[in-house]
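User: Can you help me understand a structure? I only have the sequence.
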Amino acid sequence: MTSVIRKAEIFSENGEHETADNWLDNMLTELELQSERLRDAQNQIAVAALRRKERLSARLNPEPRTPNPEP
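Assistant: Let's start by predicting it. Here is the structure, written out as tokens:
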């Protein structure tokens, strides 16, 4: 993150203020996209973990079976 800010400062020091603004906007957009991808991945992991837990629980605690009535 420090290098991103430093690069924008260099643009600004060279009088390229619009370039600095665009650079920071682009980096912010990229960070937002990465954050969204991380949230999606975390949600997928959480769902998979919940499913594994449910399957394990079902194996360890099977539903009692009712015997078939004999004719």
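Now, to help you interpret it: The helical segments are 2-13, 17-60. The mean pLDDT is 90. Let me know which part you'd like to focus on.
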